[in-house]
Design a protein that fits this description.
This protein is mostly helical. It is 77% helix and 0% strand. The protein has twelve helices and no strands.
């Protein structure tokens, strides 16, 4: 990967992150204004489609996906996806502004830990090699594993309402992470439009992207934006990197002990940030549900 490629991939990924953050804040606001529905009920999207501000968020999503595609055209999945977490602080702060309340101290700390952790983790996840085409057998195994993990997380959200935001956000992260790998495959075939249109990748990307969008809206209905978006921001790059390594055969630079150590520190900070955001949301929900004296 040349310096020119990096000069295109990194700014495109960061611009995509900020655009995704803007879209998430708008969608979170609008999702809280409509009737709550089941995790896989497409009626939620039809209800939201009647709200102009939500449609503005969808337009921002489309722009963000375009910028993400540019990033994936010039950079590997394991570089581009972790950079998308840069939109997390922006999204939560904008959500607080739309709700006309200041961010809580614990939210700021949790967001900061997630952002710093993933920023530390990103260099260790930079690929040094990339296979031109995915391995079909590995792709089917990965699809089954991702589906099973998504259903398990949705099951947790159903039986543990207090964890619904984190669990549903994590499920959305798994789905969107898988969609990012499909998008990377499509980006790699942009110069071969016939091969692209005759492959399953673009059509699977549309289906997976629609499911990811639905799960995001369900997650946004569970309460504050911080917890579900943090879980999504962690699981999306993690899923994408795992799938990129196993399906696309991206190679990670694991020979340097310093890089491995930084990756461990980054992962620990991210987990701590998500736990803090989840505990903060649960605590405020308990206070909201408590009987008034």
């Amino acid at each position: 990967m040349s310096g020119t490629d990096l000069a295109i991939a990194i700014p495109a990924a960061l611009a995509s992150a900020l655009t995704f953050g803007f879209a998430a804040a708008l969608q979170h606001r609008e999702s809280g204004e409509v009737e709550k529905r089941g995790a896989l009920d497409p009626g939620l999207l039809s209800s939201l489609a009647r709200r102009p501000l939500w449609l503005v968020g969808i337009g921002a999503d489309v722009l963000a996906v375009g910028l993400q595609t540019v990033g994936l055209r010039f950079g590997p999945v394991s570089l581009v996806q972790p950079l998308l977490v840069a939109g997390l602080p922006f999204a939560v702060l904008l959500s607080c502004l739309l709700a006309r309340r200041p961010p809580r101290t614990a939210e700021v700390l949790g967001i900061s830990l997630c952002a710093v952790g993933l920023a530390v983790l990103a260099p260790a996840a930079t690929a040094v090699g990339l296979a031109p085409e995915p391995q079909r057998s590995a792709a089917w195994v990965a699809a089954v594993a991702a589906t099973a993990l998504t259903l398990a997380l949705l099951g947790v959200a159903r039986v543990r309402p207090r964890l619904a935001g984190v669990a549903t956000g994590a499920a959305a992260g798994v789905v969107t992470g898988a969609g990012s790998v499909l998008l990377a495959v499509c980006a790699g075939r942009l110069g071969r439009p016939v091969d692209l249109l005759l492959s399953i990748a673009p059509y699977a990307a549309v289906v997976v992207g629609g499911l990811g969008l639905l799960l995001c809206q369900v997650a946004f209905q569970t309460g504050d934006l911080g917890a579900p978006l943090a879980a999504l921001s962690v699981l999306e790059p993690a899923t994408a990197v795992v799938l990129a390594v196993t399906v696309l055969h991206e190679r990670l630079p694991t020979q340097q002990s310093a890089e491995v150590g930084l990756a461990g520190v980054g992962a620990a900070l991210v987990v701590l940030g998500v736990v803090l955001l989840a505990r903060t949301q649960a605590r405020w929900e308990e206070l909201a549900d408590a009987p008034k004296m």
